[in-house]
């Protein structure tokens, strides 16, 4: 087996690659933003390589991807563990839980933490066909990953990027509660429509930040989607007046670099706790130790412009309708994942869709684009 150092042309879906002592750490935000606005929540999410994959062509029959992982886990949270998915010629052939690296485990009940460290993770592929094929390693959406090396018994060559799709959004776009990285709804849409995904879904952090709008403006793309609203509600971050202005400003900035690129604004998916109840959201302390941490909404009413998902959906529809932009489209999130869907597939933690729901969302978004 030959040891291949992983160079940037093998990595798709990252904005920037940081050289570490071990290898390359993918970032989904550039260093300029990380220095300007080092918000701990956003910094934690941008390091998690949702939508990032290592891709190459090869005739190799035996391949190993070597990585090192760093994760923060909450005991009894009910959240899926991190995984690496492997696709060969667009077919999923392996999905395995990551091992090794550094783990910080947090006990919700006691508040205690325990740290363990182990070696690198080795993802093995054996006895593949000797024909030339495309191999994709989809990295976890929920932990940090350093990419160290590829070991193969034949030459590997990079794959040229395809039609670029930028998706911006919340933890639902990042992948929360999906079973594995290629199963998150943006990955499913990208696979179905053969798009080169850049996933700017950041858990708890889709706040219509101006620097994200500038990043999208300055990044080449043939398709842009914006999944907006849920984080603003569950953080109680804005009132209706400021939300309207922020969304207009976000769109204005993007249009400065993408004047005619197809752009879809997806209003919030159905989420029962915030449909008619404002944020802020909070952990439901009664669920601690139950094996499934849940969330609750703590707001009281919609006076003084307080936001709910119902209010935001109406605002998004009105904003898109009033802008003179034939390439700007609205997708009603409550039709993509509805109250009926939630009744059939309840949100495990009252906030994030499960694996089956990611598939439902992907199928319906795909038809809208």
Strands, helices and their partners?
Blueprint: E1 2-5, E2 11-12, E3 16-19, E4 24-27, H1 31-36, H2 40-47, E5 53-58, E6 63-74, E7 83-88, E8 91-97, E9 102-106, E10 113-117, E11 121-125, E12 133-138, E13 144-152, E14 156-158, E15 163-169, H3 171-174, H4 185-193, E16 195-201, H5 210-218, E17 223-227, H6 230-234, H7 240-257, E18 263-266, E19 281-283, E20 295-297, H8 309-322, E21 328-331, H9 333-336, H10 339-344, H11 355-368
Parallel strand pairs: 6-9, 15-16, 15-17, 17-18, 18-21
Antiparallel strand pairs: 1-13, 2-5, 3-4, 5-12, 5-14, 6-11, 6-13, 7-8, 7-12, 9-10, 19-20
Helix pairs in contact: 4-11, 5-7, 7-8
How would you sum up this structure in a few lines?
With 369 residues, the protein is α+β, with helices and mostly antiparallel strands. Helix content is 26%, strand content 30%. It folds into 2 domains: 157 residues, Sandwich (Jelly Rolls); 206 residues, SGNH hydrolase (Rossmann fold, 3-Layer(aba) Sandwich).
């Amino acid at each position: 087996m030959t040891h291949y150092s992983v160079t940037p042309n093998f990595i798709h879906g990252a904005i920037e690659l940081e050289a570490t002592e071990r290898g390359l750490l993918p970032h989904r935000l550039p260093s300029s933003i990380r220095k300007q606005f080092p918000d701990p929540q956003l910094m934690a999410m941008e390091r998690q390589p949702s939508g990032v994959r290592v891709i190459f062509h090869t005739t190799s029959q035996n391949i190993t991807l070597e990585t090192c992982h760093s994760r923060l886990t909450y005991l009894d949270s009910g959240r899926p563990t991190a995984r690496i998915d492997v696709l060969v010629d667009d077919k999923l052939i392996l999905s395995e839980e990551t091992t090794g690296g550094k783990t910080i485990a947090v006990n919700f009940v006691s508040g205690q933490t325990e740290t363990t460290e182990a070696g690198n993770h080795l993802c093995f592929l054996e006895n593949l066909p000797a024909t030339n094929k495309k191999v994709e390693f989809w990295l976890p959406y929920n932990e940090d990953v350093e990419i160290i090396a590829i070991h193969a018994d034949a030459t590997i060559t990079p794959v040229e990027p395809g039609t670029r799709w930028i998706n911006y959004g919340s933890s639902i776009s990042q992948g929360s509660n999906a079973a594995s990285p290629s199963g998150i709804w943006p990955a499913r849409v990208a696979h179905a429509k053969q798009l080169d995904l850049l996933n700017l879904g950041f858990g708890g952090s889709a706040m219509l930040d101006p620097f994200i709008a500038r990043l999208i403006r300055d990044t080449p793309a043939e398709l842009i989607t914006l999944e907006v609203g849920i984080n603003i509600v569950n953080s109680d971050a804005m009132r209706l007046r400021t939300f309207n202005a922020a969304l207009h400003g976000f769109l204005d900035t993007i249009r400065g670099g993408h004047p005619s690129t197809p752009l879809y604004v997806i209003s919030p998916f159905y989420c029962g706790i915030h449909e008619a109840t404002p944020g802020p959201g909070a952990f439901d302390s009664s669920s601690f130790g139950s094996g499934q941490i849940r969330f609750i909404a703590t707001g009281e009413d919609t006076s003084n412009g307080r936001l709910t998902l119902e209010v935001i959906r109406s605002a998004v529809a009105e904003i898109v309708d009033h802008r003179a932009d034939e390439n700007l489209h609205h997708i009603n999130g409550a039709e993509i994942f509805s109250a009926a869907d939630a009744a059939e597939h309840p949100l495990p933690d009252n906030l994030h869709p499960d694996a089956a729901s990611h598939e439902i969302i992907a199928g319906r978004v795909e038809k809208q684009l």
